Amino acid sequence: MTQMNWRIVLAARPKGLPTEADFRLEEVPIVQPGEGEILVRTRYLSVDPYMRGRMNEGASYAPGVGLGEVMVGGAVGDVVASRHAGFAEGDVAQVHSGWQDYGLASGDGARKVDPDLAPISTSLGVLGMPGITAWVGLLEIGHPQAGETVVVSGAAGAVGSLVGQIARIKGCRVVGVAGSDVKVSHVTDELGFAAAFNYKTTLDYGAALGELCPDGVDVYFDNVGGTISDAVLQHMNVGGRISVCGQISQYNLRTPEMGPRLTWLFITRRLQMRGFLVFDFEKLYAKALQEMSAWVQDGRLSYREDIVAGLEQTPAAFIGMLTGDNIGKRLVQVA
Amino acid sequence: MTQMNWRIVLAARPKGLPTEADFRLEEVPIVQPGEGEILVRTRYLSVDPYMRGRMNEGASYAPGVGLGEVMVGGAVGDVVASRHAGFAEGDVAQVHSGWQDYGLASGDGARKVDPDLAPISTSLGVLGMPGITAWVGLLEIGHPQAGETVVVSGAAGAVGSLVGQIARIKGCRVVGVAGSDVKVSHVTDELGFAAAFNYKTTLDYGAALGELCPDGVDVYFDNVGGTISDAVLQHMNVGGRISVCGQISQYNLRTPEMGPRLTWLFITRRLQMRGFLVFDFEKLYAKALQEMSAWVQDGRLSYREDIVAGLEQTPAAFIGMLTGDNIGKRLVQVA
User: Fold this and answer.
1) What distance in Å separates the CA atoms of residue B263 and residue A153, rounded to the nearest whole number?
2) Which domain holds residue B110?
3) Which residues of chain B make contact with A265, given a CB cutoff of 8 A?
4) Looking at the domain assignment, is residue B287 inside a domain?
5) A149 and A267 assigned to the same domain
6) Residues belonging to chain B with any Cβ–Cβ distance to chain A shorter than 8 Å
7) Taking Cα atoms as reference points, which of B26, B67, B55, B292 lies closest to residue B159?
């Protein structure tokens, strides 16, 4: 009897915010691994903002997902068959097999996860790509110095919640921008942010920043873009650094939004802005994971997972995350 | 008999583009130098885009000029009295004495100019602040590599015309954006730019850039901002660098212009943008001047001066420069 695999494919290219009709759940036979490959039964899969870009026609920094192809993304699970010397049946592997129950992956591209060190779900969050993204984007791009003020947008999200804590560990005063009062309380009460404001209920972002950042802003870690960034930019100090990680406010727009031109501030304040993709910093992954693990173990870095159960719930979990209904790292528990 | 000094003071704060009514020519007694000061009779004075910012109320990166105060700016002329050990009567000094016939300056802040090495007017241009600005902004911020494509806006201006030539000397392919066909011919025929286009007569900047920069843009040196920058940004290559020197298209606007939000390109293309003020790079002035002088002497770097005669013509010369009626460095010959 052929074993079957459930997977979610891209059914249509979204116009604006994706809907569940843009995805299709289908059943296909499991393919056994070829030479150098492993077959992994997914326990958790990751939904991340970048996946919205992959749903578009044409390449952005990576090729888009083709219609009828399985949605891309990170996953972690049990190796059920291996033709790679580095993995044996029963190992836990973090792979990039996408939204499916059973995924094939190159063993060379897979990461072995030790389930005794930390819950395996963390390999998709604090001790995985989002964690490394926060570490690289803050430390390598933002260069925060002790005593400086760091503002983080998307503060309660998978990356933002870690950025703020790393900045706090580095001796900075951290101010968050988030989309609900619960998120604001979470980052201030539980994650050690000095302050935060709810951008959905705050009328004047500039006034809020003026009050919460009396010494101005030295580093802005931007996950969101749009009007929040306009306001933060106007509060940047001379020599400020802007690390652009995401622009989630813009991903579902069908044409670019218009905003005020503020580039002159880059001159008068001598600002630097740099966008990044974590993939360009592969040589730092080990160092980042080592530091993040140590901070988790000594209790200085906490993380929150927002777990939805069931592969068939993945589209809704993803769409909800794009609208900000998660706190911390959204994952889908599959097996 | 008291000797008199003619000077131009700020009479009113401009709304939008300055008019001649915003300035006033007045005659005041010459003040003799105090301890450590020199009195310089201006031969040439400089008009530069940054002066527009100084006409506004309040400080930008430097305090604004007060109403009734003499307009700021660089000048070069003859030392007619000195109470500073480094200067004697008859020396030529480059000072920051502004729009006037006789200016007092601190000797410590003055630069002695050797009239045998180069025409003294060059101390306000290619071998002065605009030259150092071009050198610093291109090399220290843009980091051009041989074989790369460099785009310069304001290509025929005091800074842009030098940026393009330095980039050419460094082995880059240089494409200019300028505001007249004469300027386009000047930079391509005389300055060695590979190509240029006239933004006032080109309908589709994106198409022009696509044609003139078939390998994309690696470095953008921005003097102008606005819609030109929108178009260049969309042609930047992965890893591109944007050096923001000026935003002359925006200086006379009463409220910020709206433009499309393109920050997401910073992520997908991993772009870096940095604004700068030349004053932050004082430790590189000597090196920059040495290299620029050598290039002028060996004929690889040419410069053009656009000289207007008469102190009383300074407001018109300045206003005209803001609208782009100059080619090369605009100066006013005073004495």
Assistant:
1) 14
2) 4-124+303-333
3) 275
4) no
5) yes
6) 53, 60-61, 222, 225-226, 229, 238, 244-247, 250-251, 256-277, 280
7) B292
Looking at the fold, whether A38 and A167 belong to one and the same domain comes out as no
* Partner residue facing B261 (CB), from A256, A269, A274: A256
Has residue A296 been placed in a domain?
no
B198 and B255 share one domain: yes
Question: Looking at this protein, which amino acid is placed at residue A109?
Answer: G
CATH number at residue A62: 3.90.180.10
> Tell me: the pLDDT tens digits for B254-289?
888 999 999 999 999 999 999 999 999 999 999 999
For the stretch B90-146, pLDDT in tens is: 999 999 999 999 999 999 999 999 999 999 999 999 999 999 999 999 999 999 999
Determine the Cα–Cα distance for residues A264 and A279; give it in Å rounded to an integer.
Answer: 31
Q: Contact A247/B269, CB-based, under 8 Å?
A: no
Q: Which residues contact A89 (CB under 8 A, 6 or more apart)?
A: A79, A80, A81, A82
What is the predicted pLDDT for the residue at B254? 83
For residue A39, the SS3 value is: strand
Q: Which of B247, B270, B276 sits opposite A275 (nearest CB)?
A: B270
Whole-angstrom CA distances from A246 to A324, B237, B263 are: 13, 19, 9
C-alpha distances in angstroms, B178 versus A26, B276, B316, B324? 57, 22, 21, 9
Give how far Cα A195 sits from Cα of A39, A158, A178, B262, Å: 45, 18, 11, 29
CATH code of the domain covering residue B192 = 3.40.50.720
The Cα B302–Cα B186 span in angstroms is 11
Of B226, B258, B267, the CB nearest to A275: B267
Q: What does the block give as tokens for A297? A: 């173990």
ipTM of the assembly? 0.94
What is the domain count for chain A? 2
Measured between CA atoms, how close is B270 to chain A, in angstroms? 5
Structure pTM? 0.95
Give the DSSP H or E segment for A165: helix A160-169
- B148 assigned to some structural domain: yes
